[in-house]
Amino acid sequence: MAELSTIARPYAKAAFDFAVEHKAVESWTEMLTFASLVTENESMKPLLNGTLASAELASLFIKVCGEQVNEQGQNLIKVMAENGRLGILPTVSLLFAEYRNEWAKEVEADVVSATELSAEQQQQISVSLEKRLARKVKLNCSIDPSLIGGVIIKSGDLVIDGSVSGKLSRLSDKLQS
Fold this sequence. Notes:
This protein has 177 residues and is α+β, with helices and mostly antiparallel strands. It has two domains: 2-102, Orthogonal Bundle (Peroxidase, domain 1), CATH 1.10.520; 106-176, no CATH class. The protein has eight helices and four strands, in the order ααααααβαβββα. It has a four-stranded mixed β-sheet with strand order 2-1-3-4. Helix 2 (25-39) runs antiparallel to helix 6 (89-103).
């Protein structure tokens, strides 16, 4: 993964800088997301690793994307095809999203709870995280009954384990030491 992100980073950075300069960050986010989905399509994968000339591959890829990709997005696809890099579009899209979140002062947080959280509980978690991280927070909530109770919150390097199973595990570790 590190190698892919190293290769994808210049493309993502160039696309992001262009998008910011032209006030088109959201449309570029949508274009890159769509183009990355095209690369992951089962019928497209063999073509990306096949023997098609780069110009033919770029033309075919642009036709598949249709109106979802504007002229500047098409130029990115052509450049990536010339360099044999269309297969890394999903990584470019992920890095672009990271640049976008940093630029917009936003962060995503994964919240895993034992039961479904109410809107009020989600709001409380969101407000607390926004204060702690000094960023706007978007919660991705999921349920894991094995937690018994409580929540686990992950955002970047931050992990807050307030689950009952986590507390029991820490207590067990302390008793054994």
